[in-house]
Amino acid sequence: MTGHPPPSSAPESADGSAPEPAQGPAPEPFRGRALRAVRQALRLLAVELGNPTEPGTPLFAAVQNPWLRRLPYLLAFGFAVSLLPTTVTVLANDYGMAGGLAGALATAQSASLLLAVARPLQAWWVIFAADVVCAVALTGLDGVAGRAWPWPPPVIVGYLALMLALSLRERRRTLIAVWLTTGAAGILFELAAPAHVQNTWVLLFVLSGVMLLMGATLRERGDAQRKLIEQETISEAERARRTLLEERTRIARELHDVVAHHMSVITVQADSAPYRISGIPKAAEDEFGAIAATARESLAEMRRLLGVLRSEETERQGGPEKAPQPGIGMLPKLVEGTVRAGVPVELALPEERAELEPAVDLSAYRIVQEALANVVRHAPGARTRVSLRTTADGTRLTVLVVNSAPPAPATPSAPLETGGTGHGLVGMRERVRLVDGSLDTGPLPDGGFRVAARLPLAPPAAPASPLPTKDSGSL
Q1: Is the dihedral of CA 310, 316, 322, 323 positive or negative?
Q2: Which of 98, 128, 154, 208 has the fewest CB atoms within 10 Å, measured from its CB?
Q3: What pLDDT score does 9 carry?
Q4: Distances in Å between the alpha carbon of 314 and those of 128, 276, 325?
Q5: Run of H or E residues at 163
């Protein structure tokens, strides 16, 4: 049996020698990679130098002070007026440049600073091009020997002013592109520098970098401060809004207890009327039943709607608070606790106890409570007087809390109530507005503080609907 010949590992060439192994694509030479990197850098420079930030918007346009808004125009005008004749004189007299060419270059280099107020990047294109043309024109002049080149002193001053305006407007990548372009132009001029000149490209390159860095730092710091102020304003508004909502929620919870009590009384009275009053007709008994049913439904609906206003602690305790809501009758106890906290307080109540609506009674107590808490927190040890009196016509209750300046040195004391609302005047205004009253607060000349509230003894009556008549067909 004949065997198959072993397969050859590689085909032989025509001369019998083994072929060379296959190779991959040749690596790109270093020169090609360098050229591609340079093209990408130039493309990036063109993009950054061709896309200005907020074109047409003047510098300091967002500043509210009108004098600061005019400051860039005044500085640009001052630089332009001073540099224009100086540049013409230096180029024509010192360097020996023709007067017409010197005037044209000086105008392009100086007057364009006015454009830098609103369009600094476009102004840079004009001024930089004029500076390059000026450097080329100075190369062949006899007066350049022994003088500054390629950037004469007036050119350096105007360019640095432009750098400051540019750094206050453009983003960081654009500033880096401008700085690198300035350095690249200086390096190219260094290669063709005339003999016996004082080369200034390094000086301009360093000073322009310093100006760009300084202006960018000032701009970024201003932006950070402006954002911080905006955030603080938003936070303050949100804090005030949250405080207002929390105080309204607390008031709603307290009123819920008051209204629930009255609705419960109505329900009990309507249910028990047929048993307490003998001989009432069937229609009246049915009417009492309907009143009781309506009151019971209203009470249940109110508890469902306002039950969500209860705190989590109250819900975990299994329902609404069982303690009665405080009123002005509990002010002596409140004052006594404040005195124990280190604040001397005098209390003056009306001689004749007026019958107050529950909302007014509760609001008066809470206003005094919050005012005394503020005294304990902000003016510990200050002498305080609390007085409540009714007006001569007997329609309003005046609540007045006045404290003097705290003694020096003030000894800090612990707050009377660690679990207070901490809402201060916001809660007072809400409570006064709730009962259609008025509130007056403010500091006193002697360093004290005054809280004065005028509360109606009875809340404003709602407009009554007309009673139905027999002619209308109603029951």
Answers
A1: negative
A2: 98
A3: 46
A4: 74, 37, 15
A5: helix 153-167
